[in-house]
Write a structure and sequence with these properties.
The structure holds 3 protein chains of 3 kinds.
Chain A lengths: L4 H28 L1 H26 L8 H14 E2 L4 E2 L2 H20 L7 H21 L13 E2 L5 E2 L2 E2 L4 E3 L2 E3 L1 H24 L2 H11 L1 H6 L4 H27 L1 E2 L6 H14 L4 H30 L6 H19 L8 H7 L2
Antiparallel strand pairs in A: 1-2, 3-8, 4-5, 6-7
Chain B lengths: L1 H22 L17 E10 L6 H21 L2 E2 L2 E11 L6 H11 L4 E3 L4 H14 L3 E3 L6 H4 L5 E3 L4 H15 L5 E5 L3 H16 L4 E6 L8 H9 L4 E5 L2 H14 L4 E4 L7 H6 L7 E4 L10 H12 L7 H18 L4 H9 L3 E3 L2 E3 L12 E7 L2 E8 L10
Helix pairs in contact in B: 2-12, 3-4, 6-7, 8-9, 12-13
Chain C lengths: L1 H31 L6 H21 L6 H28 L8 H22 L4 E2 L8 E4 L2 E4 H23 L1 H11 L1 H6 L4 H27 L1 E2 L3 H16 L4 H25 L9 H15 L14
Antiparallel strand pairs in C: 1-4, 2-3
Helix pairs in contact in C: 1-5, 1-8, 1-9, 1-10, 2-3, 2-4, 2-8, 2-9, 3-8, 5-6, 5-8, 6-8, 9-10, 9-11, 10-11
Classes of the chains: A mainly alpha, B alpha/beta, C mainly alpha.
């Protein structure tokens, strides 16, 4: 490639990253075991969620505290259509896009009544929506059993292309792939797709309209931007990625229940976006990876250290993890409000 | 360019990891199976998973203690299988009672190729983990998970040594209808997988046995105010109120029942059958009935002696499911002996056919993996303590009472 | 009829508690424009602190009369909560006064999480039973059961609300608070120190929260590290229902919400033919919230909601 020096370096960097990502699951499995491949898969799912929430919070500046509801919608839709619960087993290329669309619909549903609300109220209302959806999912098992209530839905089909299932261990082309490793590639591909989509959106007219609304809604309206539709679009797009991630989660885990879709999860995803860098695609991915790896790291360090020093665990890792989350939110807002890896624009906005 | 420098660093790190990883042997494997020349020992690693930290850690630790005691006893007994003496090791893992953590921990044990797993403790964690053990072919016995789903998934590796909620709920429902002769039954559940599961079964079996359900109300596992639903229930004049849930709700609920002047008989399942209930409910607890999927320690065939040995080693009393954990471990050994091998694939079929006399009583599994004839005990709260009032199911109580 | 009466009594008691907590939200919001997400945790800390003191006193065998023990619990809980509120304001909220709206909101969530987990570390995760300090007598009124606890709660809450109104409308501090809420710049020009006023609002709210905490744990007999969250959310709903920034509105909103929840949980089964049951009772608060904010964002009594850019 006869490119000038700087560009060649950039392409080499990209190639290296691609290579690293390609071999990652095998490197991890060899070094630490399949557990870490699962952790990376979880990180990818969270990255998708963070990217979706980033559209709502980061691009459009609308604080959504009930985002996990879309994740739940996508997951339940997939599970209902691909499990023994109703006896329906639709393939993923129907259920995943369906989850995408239905979640987008719910996004509009949530957005519509909240268009006139300001930041704080919007946050509370979205929180309320999130809780309402969770409560409904937990209780829609009587008189007609739709969601199977708190028992959740079990034995959800994994991703399958014909006879090739993503959850079984197989040898392809001489290389041994385990279930989690196969899922890794599926998740990676979809995450990359979402990243590309987000980048395009950010640079498009819509993205700029979102930015305008975030900065000054009145001025944006004065400039002729249809704030109503643009906001709804933000909700819909953000929700749709959540729905997609939800479907993948259901197929990966094989079992879903309303427990996994609590307010705490919404706050976790929000923390990833805030910590990583609101509005910055790379930033939120960083946030997602950090905050997914964090509990593992804590468990591997905090527990043994305490056992060594005190002979038993005094402070349990779950408490420390949440404590650090909360502290991270406060500290980030106080000292680096634009996030660890901020978008240059937000940096200016938050600069004091 | 800022980005590419950062990217380089990140990529280099990842590749380094990869190269380093590939050349390293799998760290998490136990010692190699082939024994040394003279003594011919075979290492057997049994995993035990329970919430070792968090609010249920006292129960989780209890399980771990029991399994460790079992390993100690087994090693001292120098059990021989297939010509080699078995040397037992324990791999204890903490799943924090979190359904998302459970598969991660299960994967860890599967990667380590343990021979069998005692666990997990909660139904919510046992069920997702069971898929991983099944895929890896690792036999799993849960000493305490009561959700029927666990064995309904059709996994050949899933077993349990306690009666499940279907069995428990059925017994309680029939008890309410026949023994308590209830004419007006009110049912409350806390909308968790456990509470709702038990309550639904109780409703079905009580109705089938002739009781009439006059109210069905709900709460959550975080509520403290039950006055609204209790008032509604009061208007239906029930003689028995069944609650599917745990002691943290049952305690305040009993107090509020008292202040509202409701005098119905309160019945619950194993979730409320704890010593905490007395602290949380005060004297409103008196007279409450609760079931437990098992026998009280001193009614088990070797319960008393186990209790003493446990106390001698760990300086505390058995908390809850230690006897079941101990038995689970020994059931695995029995299966290995019968199969003449420690390979999971070989002793799994023997496990399904096992007939073992444990400290909790005889252990046999049905075709789903549930224990056959699991006994259920009804307890009554008397004078600030739980006193057994009836044992239903199970074989005839053992005569051996040391 | 007696069931309806009973539900009303339950609802009014619950509502009084919501009202007390809602006052704290509304005061802070009226002056600073911040939803203090962590306010519910103040209630929790108050409850647990009082509980610890009461447990210690009862165990000490000093044989103090119940009223004294409760009072002692209160006297420790209130300053602790006030200190905590002060710390919150100074450390987490004051530096963000001028920042875009998102920032203090996220910080508030962070503070809430930190407080919950600190409480978990200090007091543990188990649920604490509130010791039976005072004997509860039940009276029968028109077929419904009223306990002296409920009477005390309602009366005490009413007295505190009245007291707060007196402070806000008849004292200099109250005047300063109202002025700052109207327009902090002009108030500043008139010599009102905004910082002091804001701190005062936080402290007053915290004191009310501590008292509410003691009430809640005594009434339900239980206290634990997570009890503040739902309560805070519902109290906030009550404040919005009545009109945020409006004290009388917070009180009205609280009482209304308590009654709506009680009656809702009691009658929803009958109303919907058992399609929806009491398992949806938590949803009422949220529905009310969304309804109010969609139809009448200024709340029942409030009129000070303007579009602040």
């Amino acid at each position: 490639m006869l490119l000038p020096g700087g560009k060649r370096l950039a392409w080499a960097g990209v190639a290296l990253i691609a290579l690293a990502l390609a071999v990652l699951p095998f490197a991890l499995a060899a070094a630490f075991g399949q557990t870490w491949v699962r952790v990376v898969n979880l990180a990818l799912l969270y990255a998708m969620l963070a990217l979706g929430l980033n559209i709502v919070v980061g691009f459009a500046g609308l604080l959504d505290l009930g985002y996990i509801a879309f994740y739940a919608v996508g997951a339940y839709l997939y599970a209902l259509l691909a499990s023994p619960h109703f006896g329906v087993h639709l393939p993923f290329w129907i259920t995943l896009p369906l989850g995408f669309l239905v979640a987008a619909f719910f996004g509009v549903l949530l957005g519509a009544p909240t268009l006139k609300l300001r930041g704080d109220y919007l946050a509370i209302v979205t929180l309320g929506f999130g809780e309402i959806i969770r409560i409904f999912l937990n209780n829609l098992n009587a008189p007609v059993n739709i969601t199977n209530g708190p028992q959740g839905i079990n034995l959800v089909d994994p991703l399958k292309i014909g006879a090739f299932s993503f959850s079984t261990r197989e040898t392809l082309l001489g290389v041994d792939f385990t279930g989690p490793q196969k899922y890794y590639y599926a998740l990676l591909a979809l995450t990359l797709g979402i990243i590309v989509l987000n980048t395009r959106l950010q640079d498009s007219r819509i993205g700029r309209a979102w930015e305008a609304i975030r900065e000054d809604e009145v001025a944006a309206r004065a400039m002729g931007i249809n704030t109503r539709n643009i906001k709804l679009l933000a909700f819909a797009m953000g929700a749709s990625f959540g729905g997609l991630a939800g479907g993948l989660f259901a197929s990966l885990q094989g079992f879903i229940s309303p427990e996994s879709f609590s307010l705490l999860e919404s706050v976790t995803v929000l923390s990833m976006v805030v910590l990583g860098g609101m509005g910055n695609i790379a930033g939120v991915i960083l946030g997602a990876v950090l905050l997914t790896a964090l509990p593992e790291v804590i468990r591997f360090t905090v527990v043994p250290v305490q056992e060594a020093v005190f002979g038993k665990v005094i402070v349990d890792p779950e408490a420390i993890r949440m404590l650090l989350f909360g502290l991270a939110l406060i500290l980030v807002m106080l000292f680096r409000p634009a996030g660890l890896w901020p978008a240059t624009l937000r940096k200016r906005e938050f600069a004091r | 360019m800022n980005c590419s420098r950062f990217c380089f660093a990140a990529t280099a790190a990842l590749l380094f990891l990869g190269i380093g990883g590939c050349s390293e042997d799998k760290k998490s494997q136990p010692a190699p199976k082939s024994g040394s020349a003279e003594m011919k020992t075979v290492d057997v690693t049994i995993g035990v998973v329970a919430p070792l930290t968090g609010p249920q850690s006292h129960i989780g630790k209890d399980l771990e203690n029991a399994v460790r005691l079992a390993a100690e006893d087994a090693n001292a007994a120098k059990i021989s299988v297939g010509g080699s003496v078995l040397k037992f090791q324990i791999m204890a893992e903490d799943d924090q009672a979190d359904p998302k953590m459970a598969p991660v921990v299960a994967q860890k044990l599967a990667d380590a190729r343990v021979n069998a797993v005692v666990g997990h403790f909660n139904s919510g964690t046992t069920i997702p983990a069971s898929k991983i053990y099944s895929d890896a072919g690792i036999p799993q016995i849960s000493p305490s998970a009561t959700n029927p789903k666990y064995t309904e998934q059709g996994f050949k590796t899933a077993f349990r040594v306690v009666a499940n909620d279907n069995q428990q709920g059925k017994v309680v429902g029939e008890y309410i209808a026949k023994d308590l002769k209830s004419k007006a039954l009110a049912i409350i559940d806390d909308r968790t997988a456990y509470g709702q599961g038990v309550a639904d079964v109780v409703q079905k079996s009580a109705t089938a046995a002739g009781a009439k359900v006059v109210a069905r109300e709900y709460t959550t596992d975080k509520s403290t105010d039950f006055k609204a639903i209790l008032t509604k229930i009061k208007s239906r004049k029930p003689d028995v109120i069944f609650f599917g849930g745990i002691d943290t709700q049952a305690g305040p609920m009993l107090k509020q029942m008292k202040s509202l002047g409701i005098s119905a008989q309160y019945v619950g399942a194993d979730g409320i059958q704890s010593t905490e209930l007395f602290k949380l409910g005060g004297d409103a607890v008196e007279g409450t009935l609760a079931s437990f999927p098992g026998l009280p320690l001193d009614r088990m065939p070797q319960g008393k002696s186990f209790g003493e040995r446990y106390r001698a080693k760990w300086n505390q009393d058995v908390v809850l499911y230690a006897p079941q954990g101990y038995d689970a471990f020994n059931v695995f050994i029995e299966a290995m002996k019968k199969a003449g091998s420690t390979e999971p694939a070989k002793f799994l079929p023997e496990l399904a056919r096992i007939d073992y006399g444990g400290i909790t009583g005889p252990i046999r599994f049905d075709e789903k993996g549930d224990i056959k004839d699991g006994p259920i005990t009804m307890f009554k709260a008397v004078g600030g303590k739980w006193a057994p009032v009836a044992t239903i199911g199970g074989p005839a109580p053992a005569a051996e009472k040391k | 009829m007696d069931i309806l009466l009973q539900q009303l009594i339950n609802g009014i008691t619950l509502g009084s508690i919501y009202a007390l907590v809602a006052l704290g939200y509304t005061m802070v919001y009226g002056i600073v424009g911040l939803i203090n997400f962590a306010h519910g945790e103040l209630v929790m800390v108050g409850a647990l602190t009082a509980l610890s003191v009461i447990q210690a006193l009862m165990a000490s065998g000093l044989g103090l009369p119940p009223a004294v023990i409760m009072l002692a619990g209160l006297l420790v809980a209130v300053p602790v909560c006030m200190l905590l509120a002060y710390a919150m304001e100074r450390i987490a909220y004051r530096p963000l006064r001028g920042a875009p709206r998102l920032a203090p909101l996220i910080t508030a969530i962070g503070v809430s999480i930190v407080l919950q987990n600190l409480a978990m570390l200090v007091w543990g995760r188990s649920y604490f039973s509130f010791p039976g300090v005072v004997n509860v007598t039940t009276y029968s009124v028109g077929g419904a059961a009223v306990t002296d606890q409920q009477i005390v709660i309602v009366l005490l809450a009413a007295a505190l609300m009245a007291g707060l109104l007196v402070v806000v409308h008849r004292t200099r501090l109250g005047l300063a608070m109202r002025a700052t809420a109207e327009n902090s710049t002009v108030a500043g020009l008139m010599g009102v120190d905004a910082n002091r006023v804001i701190v005062a609002a936080f402290l007053l709210g915290a004191a009310l929260a501590a008292i509410a905490g003691l009430m809640v744990s005594a009434y339900y007999g239980i206290a634990h590290y997570y009890m503040g969250f739902m309560l805070g959310l519902k109290a906030f709903t009550a404040a919005v229902l009545g009109g945020i920034g409006n004290l009388a509105g917070a009180m009205l909103g609280g009482l209304l919400l308590g009654v709506i929840e009680s009656l809702g949980a009691g009658y929803i089964g009958d109303l919907t033919g058992d399609v929806l049951g009491s398992n949806y009772q938590d949803v009422f608060a949220f529905f009310v919230l969304i309804l109010v904010l969609t139809i009448r964002p200024s709340g029942l009594l409030g009129e000070r909601i303007s579009e602040r850019a």
